[in-house]
Amino acid sequence: MKTTLLRAVVPMAFLFTLISCSSSDSAEETSAAKPQLIQNYEYNSDELQLADLINEHRVSLGLNPLQLINHVSYKSEEHNEYMIARKVVNHDLFPERSENIIEVLGAVKVNENVAYNFVSSNSALNAWLNSPGHKSNIEGNFTHFGISIRQDETTGKKYYTNIFVKK
């Protein structure tokens, strides 16, 4: 009886050993949980123009120009897509965007400007500069930034997200 039971249990124990978690399984889970650096982002002409306008403004005040980071522009684009899908303008999920940028890029400070329904990059920048909070971000102690401008295909209205980063 003991031999029969042992013959039944040993193969099952061997089978469980084969299908249990391995170190490669947990490595895959760990890497999936860690946010990944987005390196590719294709800027459109409006985004590049807005980046130039912001930097021209900063330089005119004696501030350092900001360097574009593709990852930050990608996170900005994600937020534009979120706003377009919901037909709202907001800072929803900013803590998650900020935490991602801090973790992936080693940022020490992250701020954000959003805008809606401006025809041009210049008009969006002028609106931000006429708002104390937005102006403070544009003129703040930052080193890098990301920009996204996306158009809602159903309404034709543009959504702007500009994230500022200090590394």
Largest sheet: 4 strands, mixed
Nearest-angstrom radius of gyration?
Answer: 24 Å
Shape: globular
Order of helices and strands: HHHEHHEHHEE
Oligomer state of the chains in this structure: single chain
Largest beta sheet: what is the strand line-up? Answer: 1-3-4-2
- Number of DSSP strand runs: 4
Helix content: 40-55%
Unreliable parts: 2-6, 8-31
Distance between the termini: 70 Å
Number of helices: 7
How would you sum up this structure in a few lines?
With 167 residues, the protein is of the alpha+beta class. Helix content is 54%, strand content 16%. It is globular.
What does this structure look like?
The chain is α+β, with helices and mostly antiparallel strands. Helices cover 54% and strands 16% of the residues. It has helices at 2-19, 23-33, 45-60, 70-86, 94-105, 121-129, 132-138, and strands at residues 67-68, 109-116, 144-151, 158-166. Helix 3 (45-60) packs parallel to helix 6 (121-129). Mean pLDDT is 86; it is low at 2-6 and 8-31.
